[in-house]
Amino acid sequence: MTITYQVRKWGAGALIFMLCALIPTAALSGPYEDAAKASRAKEYSKAVALFRPLAEADNDDAQWYMGTFYRKGQGVEKSYEKAFYWYDRSARNGDVDSQYELAKLYYFGDGTPKDHKAAFTWYLAAAKQGHKKAAYDVGYAYKNADGVKRSYAKALKWYQKSADYGNNSGRTSLGIMYENGEGTKKDYRKAAKLYADAADNGDAKGRAFLGEMYYYGKGVNTDKKQGIELYKQAAAMGSDYAKEKLEALGITNDKLGDEAYIAYLKKDYKGAITVWKKRALAGDVAAMVNLGHVYKGAKNVQDYKQAKAWYELAVSRENSEAMVALGDMYNYGLGMPRNYTEAYRLYTSAVYEDDPEGVYMFATMYDDGHGVEQDKEKALQLYQVAADMGNSDAKSVLKFYKDKAMREARWDQMVANLDAIKARVARQKRECDKLAYRGNLEAARRSGQYHTYSYKPPTRCLGSNVSR
Questions:
Q1: 277 and 378 inside one domain
Q2: Same domain, 279 and 297
Q3: What Cα–Cα distance (Å) separates residue 406 from each residue in 278, 399, 409?
Q4: pTM (whole model) above 0.85
């Protein structure tokens, strides 16, 4: 692959910066760089004029550009036929992006007769070069016998590759196969993990399916509240599946249409912050809390100082969610020294507001002895209160302690059984020693009289070294 392909793939700025240390600046100028610059500036007519001779000279990257210009109608009259011509030339030269675009043209019949077999051939070629969307399409084709013979095993393989490349569709589709046991054994935990990975990367479908796993307790602890919340989030992001689920449950989604919330779910944190700041400055306490959350948790905008400021503002309005969140910052030393005393105070305030998360975190302080004298019994009582209020973390902790108590009880029973066995063996050995002693005396007495005599120990003593 030529260096110009890498400029298109990575972005000109990043690669030019690296090249500046290796070659003279003058060498960076040229027809291709001028054409790429014109394209970035959206001067498409100029870009077409500069790329065309390069494409005709068989530069695969220039051919990709020409195919894209014709497909989108940028600088030229839109023409799928001409787009097909240029993508085909570039694909045959090995350009992975052109191979993928050519596959799509075959699949949808744009600029060429519809041909799913040919589409599969090019999807596979691109997938073998690491194209994450193509890997998904290959998996889809194998699963649905679309242009190729059905094979769940191969579908699983390519969905896995797509997931490994970071494709959300690959993750959710792979999750479905594990959930349904297609091409592999059913594995709800693995399915839930894949859905969660997709959801964490802003995927509505993965979020909806994860909601279903929580609602029905498949691969995760049953948590209907969390399931409904995930359904709502997915519906707000446009998932029809999640909307149908909410309608079937008779639940209204109050999150639909919230532009800031949708931006947040799609990981457009800056867009979400812009909207929430306007609301927060107008006195919206929920927006203050959301700003605290995004500044605390979103890595590309993380700012603990800002998070603390917004949480404190919400706490001053007696918001229990902010009390818990700010308590967490003190408890775990996020952007500040640990301060268990302050964390304990904030969790206590949340408890007075009947906040389940606050009760749970309050329990952890007694469990760990942070900010208060350790009291396991009181911690367990508080965990139970939080669990009764619906807190899933408290339920998990209670289950852990219950399982731990059962393990300890089993161990104590094993030790008691072992002691009993040892006592029985020792008692038997003492009895056999006595019998052996008496038998040997009798044998000695008789050996000098009428006939020889040898001692035969009882069956129960045959395992005793002393009686042999």
A1: yes
A2: yes
A3: 53, 10, 5
A4: no
